[in-house]
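@channel sequence for tomorrow's demo:
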Amino acid sequence: MKCRYPIAGEVVDSYRLRHGPDGPAGLRVTRSDLAAARRRQLNPRRARWQKPGAVVRALGLRRGQVVAEIGAGPGYFTPRLARAVGPSGHVYAVDPEAAVLEVLCRRLARTRLRNVTPVLGRDDDALLPSGRCDLAVLINVYHHMHEGAAFLRRLVPTLTRDARVVNIDWAEQSEWGPPARRRVPRVRFLRDARRAGLRLIAEHRFLPHQYFFVLRRTR
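structure tokens (generated this afternoon):
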């Protein structure tokens, strides 16, 4: 699979959008930082607490469905989602980092999956095709967004009328994950979701360090 996205410069542009000119907490974000993040995301030990098989099963995906994976990164979940929807389904793997999408493309090239489209999104807009996606999945990404509420307001109208949105992110009380000041409390996320036209329809509690919300469009 070819990636047509250019590689950004030494300091990645979308990180500047999220965290200012010097990255989070005043630190410059370089390619080495991104490489370290990729290693963490793809670490085999992650499965112990992320439980990817159980997560995908809980999504209840059917063959032929179209999924938007927001913040796909190097593709920890992407192949699992692509297999779940089958050859007649599709996954739009969205990430604002061109360098990270290059890694995703190289990983996909080693599989036989042909139902994934990498999308170079923006921090404030997934840039998805309108009216195609039945499900949008955000895993460990909402707390990275500088304007998460605005992102949701742009995302929801692009989905199908009966679409679901799933958000998995770090629980406030967990000893794992980012610093407490960077987490998004569940109450705040649900408020943002409600204002974007989403209602909570289910919550799964099998993840030890994260909340897992399933929401549906209300308009």
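heads up for whoever presents: The chain has a mean pLDDT of 86.
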